[in-house]
Design brief:
The complex is a heterodimer of chains A (503) and B (267). By secondary structure, chain A is an alpha+beta fold. Helix content of chain A is 17%, strand content 41%. In chain A, the strands form 8 sheets. A 6-stranded mixed beta sheet of chain A has the order 6-9-10-3-11-12, with helices on both faces. Chain A has a 5-stranded antiparallel beta sheet with strand order 15-14-13-16-22. Residues 1-6 of chain A have low confidence and may be disordered. Chain B has a single domain (43-155, 184-257), classed as MetI-like (MetI-like fold), CATH 1.10.3720. Helix content of chain B is 77%, strand content 0%. Classes of the chains: A alpha+beta (503), B mainly alpha (267). At the A-B interface, strand 6, helix 2 and helix 4 of A face helix 8 and helix 9 of B.
Amino acid sequence: MAQLKKEEKIIEIVNVSKIFDETAAVQDMSFYVRKGEFITFLGPSGCGKTTTLRMIAGFDIPTSGKILLSGKDITNLPPNKRPVNTVFQRYALFPHYNIYDNIAFGLKLKKVPVTYRNDAGETYTKMQKLTRKEIDEKVRAALAVVDLEGFEKRSVSTLSGGQQQRVAIARAIVNEPEILLLDEPLGALDLKMRKEMQLELKEMHRKLGITFIYVTHDQEEALTMSDTIVVMKDGRIQQIGTPTSIYNEPANAFVADFIGESNIFSGTMVGKRSVRFCNHNFECVDDFEKNEKVDVVVRPEDVVMTAPEEGMLKGKVINVVFKGVHYEITAQVGRSEMVIQNTQSRSVGDVIGMNIAPDAIHIMKKEFAANIYDGYITKKNTVVFGDGEFDCDVTTLYPGSHLDEEGYLITAAGEKIDLTDTDVIVEVGLEDIEISDNADEGGARGHIVQLIYKGDHYQYIVRTEENEEDYVFDSPDLWNENDYVSVKIKPENIRLRLKQEVK
Amino acid sequence: MVKKILSVALCAAVLLFIYAPILLLVIYSFTTSNVIGKWEGGFSLDLYGQLFRNAEIMQILFNTVWLALAAAALSTVLGTAGAIGIFYSRRRAAKPLQAVSQIPVINAEIVTAISLALLFSSIFLYRTYFSLLVGHMVLCTPFVVLSVLPKLKQMDSNTYEAALDLGASPTQALFKIVLPQIFSGVLSGFMLSVTLSLDDYIVTAFTKPPMFDTISTYVYNAVKNGTHSSTPALRALSALIFVVMIAVLLIINLRARKPRSGKEARK
């Protein structure tokens, strides 16, 4: 995104955090919204997108950080004093008012400066309410914008979901806000209605020329409507960019997996602009250090099917699904699976070749190369980290050392050391973690909070309940999200380092 | 078929068991006989006539109604404010607050009455109009909270935020948006309070000024002291109270059943 001048920023979020009952909904978030743009907060539920919106509206006050509107600090300004209006997810229309009164609600409260000239010829300004005629005109104009002319006298309950949605939009835009906030406004509509409203909202944005801040968990909606997308996860921004850049150049595996369909592989850079995955060296356009482990994203529509002998990769079709416009074909390539979208079909069992153009291969820095924790050694010479206790080999801390019968460590120089409560840094590789259904078997317990399919294996994140410590690991086995599992790590796979020299 | 008749018969028997005494009272309010069980002088409305000509009873009736309306109105304000406070407080605080607000409902009334008496004697306001009014408010307020809270829970809580968003101050949002939506709950709370206050004896007896009587205390004293002169008329009074109560109850129930127009479909 091009660097923009300061005065074009209408909203600036500066290091904002929001903590509800000790859990952080938004963590140290900073970004800005340009005047007149259509910006979308996108992410799975619980990612902090609605909380961010509510802080801009003024319903929630940030725990720390600042919110600036056109350079002015509005962090603690109540919602009724902000030039911002909201379209709520469940519309929040006033059931005891008819459509006209719903829309006129904001106008009737509004006071505008009116200039008068007195007998002496001096002019003075008075804040006064809008006249009935002015309100009438504005309400009619707003109803025209949302195509609901003639609905003034109808009661809210006689309207369909889509019509209520339109009234909610009219009620917000009639106040001519500088910013319109939309909190998953299309979530309750059926698919066809949603598609129509997406286009209409986009058109409305163009006509009104005000800033739209939109919240959704629907990646397609975000791609269709936005100028800028902010992808969020766990209260943090993952990536900010245009729909095209986010789709084509996802910043990490989470974004790639969340936006659109994707094949994600673990690869290794083998040379300048050359990456190896699925047992083949591919040319690519991204440059990384040689031998660096990377994540590779290939969009299903970018995989070209050829005759088996002409392809860079050869695979056997194991699944074909008709999707309307295209077929979704899954091919087994060695140990990995490749999903292909094509208008031509293949039969299950066919052997096909596959080609991938260099610019269709997107390479991302590997997010997790290893798990690293702060831990300490216990009396029993086990190590405690990540909300769990594991057996380990403490002699690795001092080369050539051994343990005596009482459990003291004898260094190579013959020095006797009590390791109890020694702070250590623990490193565990992604391949070295196993999980089990049996809660007593492993050293720590948690729920699977994320899984991403990476061609020939899944990458899992197990999060403990107590301190929300994450264990990231790869496994070929399929588990389900939210499974409660215990984490097993073999003692030889727990790499220990001293945090500081023990006295 | 037999099953059906049996079930109807059982229902009738239960209802008869509940309503027989009141029915008897209503029937005997139409005869001038001094003793219930003897039908003297045939059907007459004399008792009702006596009732309305008796200045003392009329004064007491006026006292009772006035007290009930005042206590109910104040309780409604207090209870509604309390319910809104509970509804908008943090989830952790809301549960205990709601539970505590309902303790007076299950607490034995005599305990409430004695506590009130103790409290007011300690602050030298015992047996004043103030203690009587506050006593009745203590009695009614929990029921107002109880009838307003469900309405608040039914309400789309975003509507309050929507009002703020559209420029309303918190006070404007409360009066223009929240109150109209919970009005039916507020009204039933008010009517419930009126009925509670009208027929209360225990709290009234413990807090009323010495020379002040409501229907309940008057009837009780009249029966206890055996001042027979007015007891037959009290039959008519009791019958009237019963009819009024039934009417209020019916209104509350009908209001609750009537589908409110203009109510948004909820998820």
